[in-house]
Inverse folding.
């Protein structure tokens, strides 16, 4: 099929190319002319070698000759740069082959003028001349010049059609079921970009289409290229949908897209050259790939930095749009002396209100009070309550005033408005008039609301002028001043009376519930858990609680709102489109708009923090600083903390309010590179999760528990959103995380999400199924556990991994035992034992014997059980497995207890306990102490029994072993029951039952219920 020529739909006059592109074109023409001269003068002794070398010169000449400044020009320029770099290496090889500088040296001199890249490798590092001949042929073929057009640009892509008729192409592809989503995203970018934008914006879609057309082939060169493609996708997605609006034309956006366009062109050329020369391993790999990828990474990162800065400028501009939507445009603001009404609803602020009122009515000194905090926390509401408080009214009378800076563009706007508030005439120096007015009255209370509008201005002069006004107001001793301001940093040079308690927090759960109920009324009992869950989800933020309640009061159903919350989050919390007081997203956006437009680092750090629901801890922050290249991460933190977008806890953890975090997740995701670095850190954290309860378990558990929710969020998100094969790091992290959960709170959710995505990876799938079986086993979901173990065994058998298959048989046998399917249990365990025996796995045989003994024990076949426990114990002791030997001894003790031989039982259990103690195996000490306590109880040695059971309880508490704690409580209840202490026994059983229900241990909860029924019968008897 003939390749279309470039269309004139993209006239060159719409875009002026940077000088480097023109220079490269000139250099290429110069090289071509010099090579033509060399053709007539070439040395006949090196004719064969020279002929091979000239092939690349022909390619350069063909690629650049007679090109107009249109769509092919950037491709040709980059091609020249990349090919000359490769050509320089070839020249050095030719010189080395002839052992004297001839043709190669001359040609290399011309080539050097066209490239500023690193020097050519030394001859000792180069490959054979035959390989270079192949490379020259490959590069010649690479450009594939046909009818004056380079097939590299258009080969097999949709770019020509996209250039001519983007709308038609977008419509056609949107209806296709086979085109990758990336294409749709890219084409949507074209649809969103207006005709008024410069040429590079139009070309983004065509360029990215080219990259993705050959994406799979590029990935075969090096796995790191997948990261490059994800970065490109990330940039395109931001470009296509910045806050759901089209990008507005402007120099900042154009510069960012130009840099991006050039970077992707360069990537395509580099990757095509690498692919074409892939057979020459010594030339291409590994340094060539690494160099190409590193250069491309840097170019893309620079483009993304420019885009972030441009979009941040756009965000600042959008602030005025929100204010305008509220009807607060400068010309419409009514600066009235009339005070706003006292707030009707103000729950959970009694302490703050009392302290503020006490400050304000203090006559001993001039009072300046600041009410700070994030948007939506009720700063204005609290200020109104202070102004309207009866004690404040009695102190100031009619000299109470509230003015808002919300619509002020400049400080002078606020001062002029204040003149109207105080009934003063217009003045050329409004501040002087105001100061004179305040000094002429004995006492005045002034509230300046929303000071952040002018104080947090990107205009440094306005910020300084605001601080100057506050400083001069501070000098008026008869003035009591209150400000409300978004953020946590106080304006300087003012003696704030409440400096130590200045930032508002969210509401308590009780206050949030009271606020909700005052607006929406009581809800039916079945809906109350949904209501409470939603209030918790919004972090009890007053604005979010209020808007949620208003939606319910308007007839929205709580269950419908909960479903919407799970999909759109803060986007549903609005009663007006853009009003700050009627829209959580708009409120958060206003705060983000105050971030500096010339420094992307604060927004980048904020987007990373949003990925972590449990906050960013100091070690993670320190690692990110190096990986992400933050020049001053502490400075970036100061900025976002100063705006109250985050807060820092006593342990140096950066946390965010839920509505702010969810807004950031939706609107400002981190770059692909930054997210990859964050994942790298958390993959490493996951690797250190404990896999067994041993002496090191408590310490390892305590280190990972604070990161558990963050791991859950990151890994779950990665499973949902990866668009290619899951990385081994992700699979390993999910497996380790899930394996740890069975020792804490068993959670199979992540594995069930991963398993369908790795069906093509049998080894990984088998391991994940094995862990899933263990988790289901811990949750007493025996049917699901059996299903997973059966699948894992089948996979291991197909992989000829007999040992792992036998362990699945053993697991299946234990599941059948717990299901009381003793025939199947014996069959599975016997099959596993046979395989272990054939593989000469004596220790595994002993484990099977122990498990078979448990089957016989539960069947009441105590003789056979005792025989197997005894033989297994001997093997364990001989093979230096004292813990397992002690477990067999513990079971032998229980058999003696059942037989009524309490003395023998006590001897066995005491011996087992001594072994566990010497090993420091705390979990085993706990279980053995429970068994020994029950033996003491049976002998009516109640004090000794309670002492042993207290040991078990304390260990369970220290290890966080909820099931162990529940077992200790259940055994203690029996001791109290036997002594007639029924109330204590009942309370202990209820506590044990509650713990079993918490960890979803159904069998334990049922045992507690049966024991409670038995207790009732004994008590009534």
């Amino acid at each position: 099929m003939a390749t279309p020529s470039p269309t004139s739909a993209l006239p060159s006059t719409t875009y002026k190319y940077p000088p480097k592109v023109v220079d490269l074109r000139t250099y290429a023409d110069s090289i071509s002319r010099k090579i033509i001269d060399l053709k007539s003068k070439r040395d006949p002794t090196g004719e064969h070698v020279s002929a091979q070398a000239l092939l690349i010169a022909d390619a350069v000449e063909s690629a650049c000759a007679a090109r107009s400044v249109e769509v092919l020009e950037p491709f040709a320029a980059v091609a020249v740069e990349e090919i000359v770099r490769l050509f320089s290496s070839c020249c050095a090889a030719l010189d080395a082959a002839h052992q004297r500088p001839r043709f190669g040296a001359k040609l290399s001199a011309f080539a050097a003028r066209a490239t500023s890249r690193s020097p050519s490798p030394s001859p000792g590092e180069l490959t054979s001349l035959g390989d270079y001949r192949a490379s020259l042929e490959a590069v010649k073929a690479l450009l594939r010049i046909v009818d004056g057009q380079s097939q590299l640009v258009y080969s097999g892509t949709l770019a020509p059609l996209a250039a001519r008729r983007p709308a038609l192409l977008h419509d056609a592809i949107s209806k296709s079921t086979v085109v990758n989503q990336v294409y749709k995203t890219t084409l949507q970018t074209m649809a969103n970009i207006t005709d008024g934008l410069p040429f590079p914006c139009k070309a983004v879609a065509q360029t990215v289409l080219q990259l993705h057309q050959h994406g799979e082939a590029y990935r075969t060169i090096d796995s790191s290229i997948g990261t490059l493609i994800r970065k490109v996708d990330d940039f395109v997605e931001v470009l296509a949908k910045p806050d759901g609006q089209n990008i507005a034309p402007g120099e900042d956006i154009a510069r960012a897209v130009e840099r991006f366009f050039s970077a992707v062109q360069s990537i395509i050329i580099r990757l095509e050259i690498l692919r074409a020369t892939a057979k020459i391993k010594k030339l291409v790999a590994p340094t060539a790939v690494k160099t190409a990828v590193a250069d491309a990474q840097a170019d893309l990162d620079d483009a993304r930095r420019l885009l972030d800065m441009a979009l941040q400028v756009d965000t600042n501009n959008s602030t005025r749009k929100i204010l305008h939507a509220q009807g607060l445009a400068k010309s419409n603001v009514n600066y009235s002396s009339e005070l706003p009404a006292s707030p009707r609803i103000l729950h959970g602020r009694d302490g703050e209100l009392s302290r503020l009122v006490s400050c304000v009515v203090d006559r001993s000194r001039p009072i300046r009070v600041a009410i700070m905090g994030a948007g939506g926390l009720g700063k204005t509401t609290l200020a109104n309550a202070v102004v309207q408080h009866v004690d404040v009214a009695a102190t100031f009378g009619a000299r109470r005033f509230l003015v808002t800076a919300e619509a002020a563009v400049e400080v002078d706007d606020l001062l002029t408005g204040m003149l109207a508030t105080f009934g003063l005439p217009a003045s050329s120096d409004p501040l002087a008039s105001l100061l004179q007015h305040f000094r002429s009255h004995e006492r005045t209370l002034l509230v300046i609301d929303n000071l952040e509008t002018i104080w947090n201005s990107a205009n440094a002069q306005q910020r300084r002028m605001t601080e100057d006004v506050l400083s001069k107001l501070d000098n008026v001793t008869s003035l009591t001043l209150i400000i409300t301001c978004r953020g946590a940093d106080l304006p300087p040079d003012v003696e704030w009376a409440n400096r130590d308690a200045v930032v508002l927090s969210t509401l308590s759960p009780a206050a949030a519930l009271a606020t909700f109920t005052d607006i929406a009324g009581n809800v039916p009992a079945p809906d109350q858990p949904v209501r409470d869950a939603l209030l918790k989800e919004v972090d009890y933020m007053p604005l979010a609680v209020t808007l949620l309640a208003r939606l319910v009061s308007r007839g929205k159903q709580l269950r419908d709102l909960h479903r919407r919350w799970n999909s759109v989050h803060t986007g549903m919390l609005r009663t007006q489109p853009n009003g700050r007081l009627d829209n959580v997203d708009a409120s958060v956006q206003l705060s983000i708009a105050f971030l500096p437009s010339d420094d992307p680092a604060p927004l980048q750090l904020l987007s990373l923090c949003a990925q972590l629901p449990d906050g960013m801890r100091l070690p993670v922050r320190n690692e990110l600083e190096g990986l992400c290249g933050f020049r001053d991460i502490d400075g970036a933190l100061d900025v976002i903390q100063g705006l109250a977008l985050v807060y820092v806890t006593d342990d140096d953890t950066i946390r965010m309010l839920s509505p702010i975090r969810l807004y950031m997740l939706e609107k400002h995701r981190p770059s692909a590179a930054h997210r990859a670095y964050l994942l790298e850190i958390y993959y490493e954290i996951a690797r250190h999760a404990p896999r067994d309860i041993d002496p090191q378990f408590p310490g390892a558990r305590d280190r990972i528990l604070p990161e558990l929710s963050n791991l859950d969020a990151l890994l779950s998100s990665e499973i949902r959103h990866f668009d290619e094969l899951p990385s081994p790091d992700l699979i390993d992290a999910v497996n380790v995380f899930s394996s740890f959960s069975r020792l804490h709170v068993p959670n199979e959710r992540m594995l069930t999400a991963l398993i369908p995505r790795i069906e093509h990876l049998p080894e990984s799938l088998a391991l994940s199924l094995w862990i899933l079986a263990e988790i289901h086993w811990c949750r007493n979901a025996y049917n699901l556990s059996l299903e997973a173990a059966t699948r894992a065994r089948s996979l291991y058998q197909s992989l000829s991994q007999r040992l792992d298959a036998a362990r699945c048989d053993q697991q299946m046998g234990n599941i059948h035992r717990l299901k009381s399917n003793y025939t199947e249990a014996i069959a599975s365990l016997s099959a596993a034992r046979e395989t272990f025996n054939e593989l000469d796995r004596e220790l595994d045989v002993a484990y099977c014997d122990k498990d078979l003994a448990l089957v016989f024990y539960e069947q009441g076949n105590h003789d056979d059980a005792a025989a197997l426990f005894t033989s297994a114990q001997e093997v364990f002791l001989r093979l230096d497995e004292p813990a397992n030997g002690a477990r067999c001894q513990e079971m032998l003790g229980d058999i003696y207890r059942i037989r009524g031989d309490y003395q023998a039982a006590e001897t066995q259990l005491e011996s087992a306990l001594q072994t566990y103690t010497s090993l420091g195996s705390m979990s085993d000490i706990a279980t053995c102490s429970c068994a020994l306590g029950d033996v003491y109880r049976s002998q009516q040695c109640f004090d000794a029994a309670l002492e042993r059971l207290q040991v078990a309880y304390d260990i369970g508490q220290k290890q966080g072993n909820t099931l162990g704690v529940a077992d200790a409580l259940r055994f203690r209840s029996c001791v109290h029951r036997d002594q007639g202490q029924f109330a204590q026994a009942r309370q202990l059983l209820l506590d044990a039952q509650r713990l079993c229900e918490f960890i979803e241990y159904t069998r334990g909860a049922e045992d507690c219920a049966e024991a409670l029924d038995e207790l009732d019968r004994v008590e009534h008897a």
